[in-house]
Amino acid sequence: MRFKNLLLIDDDEDDQELFIEAAKEASPDLNITVVPDAATALDKLTNKSVVADIIFSDLNMPRMNGQQFLLEIKRRPELKDIPVIIFSTSSHSHTIQLVKDFGAYDFITKPGLFNELVSTLKRILE
Amino acid sequence: MEAVIHLASNRPCTQNEQYRSYYTSNLKDETLAAGASVEHKNVLLIPLVGDIFTTQRLSPGQAQLTSKEITVTNPYEEELVNYLVIETHLLIDGIIDFEFDQNELTILFPGIYIGKYDGRRDDVLRTETKNALVFIIAGAFEVQNRLLEPRDGLELSEVTEIEFEALSNEAILLIVDVP
Q1: Strand order in the sheet with B153-157
Q2: What does the angle CA A102 – CA A103 – CA A105 come to, to the nearest 5 degrees?
Q3: Does the pLDDT at position A1 exceed 70?
Q4: What does the alpha-carbon distance between residue A126 and residue A55 come to, in Å, rounded to a whole number?
Q5: ipTM over 0.85
Q6: Cβ neighbours of residue A59 under 8 Å, at least 6 residues apart?
Q7: Tell me, what's the pLDDT at B89?
Q8: Sign of dihedral through CA atoms B66, B71, B74, B76?
């Protein structure tokens, strides 16, 4: 397994639950931390109260959106190498291009089906 | 009422290694490389991702209106920045800090509105000029019964009320009255 500690940033509780279940099925030994907004996640990563090898972040969130979060991660030498995957309901081509321009490791449109989400996470995490 | 949709993917674009600008009527959606600069005049500047430097450092949540020539610089060493440039005839100079009142429009400057909405929340703006440009910054909206996604624009003429509904959470739109 390449990744041990996964950080999920998402303000939607239903999406959080679905993601955690799918991630545990995709990679049972994974440590998963959930933070509901990007600004708090950035604080926790900076002060090392959260450790992450890989980050999945929603795009449209209160306080700080996913693109701004990407920029802030890339500005911090100690965090800039953590792969950040934008995980959004959007499949809009311009949005995908913009987040990749800002250094996203990948952009994934949230699958509608649980099994699809498990497959997607297996592909990324293994 | 007449309406013209400008889809994000069909916008005219000017770009080089340091700069990319997509055009939607009198609005430009610009991305600037680290350290690069570009000049503008008679514009409203709204940083979207990252800070820009003009006469001072501007962050998301701020907007600057200038009637003078102004140089926009990306102050970072490595990162890109993304911001909007709206050509305006307003002869006002100023910088404002704004916060979103969730599900309400905020007036940035006369005739220029921005709003953040939860999914399924709707609103109406009564325009004085009868011409307006609606631009979607984030999320999706239905505006005057037309689906608009991020960075899509809708030019409206002969309109007195603009009706819109957010189709996703944390959706942000900008409305500019056009004289």
Answers
A1: B2-6, B153-157, B131-138, B171-177, B112-117, B105-109
A2: 140
A3: no
A4: 15
A5: no
A6: A65, A66, A67, A86, A87, A88, A90, A95, A99, B138
A7: 82
A8: negative
For chain A, say whether B79 makes contact (Cβ under 8 Å).
yes
Instruction: Indicate left, alpha or beta for A18 from its phi (over 0: left) and psi (-120 to 50: alpha).
Output: alpha
For residues A64, A66, A70 and A75, what is the CA-based torsion angle, rounded to 10 degrees? -10
Q: Tokens for B49?
A: 């991702």
B171 to chain A, any CB pair closer than 8 A? The answer is: yes
The tokens describing B157, both together, are 């003429």
On whether any CB of chain A is under 8 Å from the CB of B74, the answer is no
Residues A117 and A120: their CA atoms lie apart, in Å, by: 5
Residue B107, pLDDT > 80, answer yes
Phi, psi (deg, nearest 5) at residue B165: -140, 130
User: Angle, nearest 10°, between helix axes A93-101 and A66-75?
Assistant: 20
State the smallest CA–CA distance between residue B86 and chain A in angstroms.
20
State the CB neighbour count (10 A cutoff) for residue A118. 18
The tens digit of pLDDT for each residue in B20-30 reads 999 999 999 99
- Half-sphere exposure at residue A101, Cβ-oriented, CA atoms within 13 angstroms: 22
Taken in order B18, B23, B28, B29, is the CA torsion positive or negative?
negative
Mean of the pLDDT values across residues A12-36?
A: 93
**Three-state DSSP class for residue A56:** strand
To 5 degrees, how large is the angle CA A52–CA A46–CA A49?
A: 60
CB pair distance less than 8 Å for B79 and A71:
yes
What's the gap in Å between the CA of A57 and the closest CA on chain B? 14
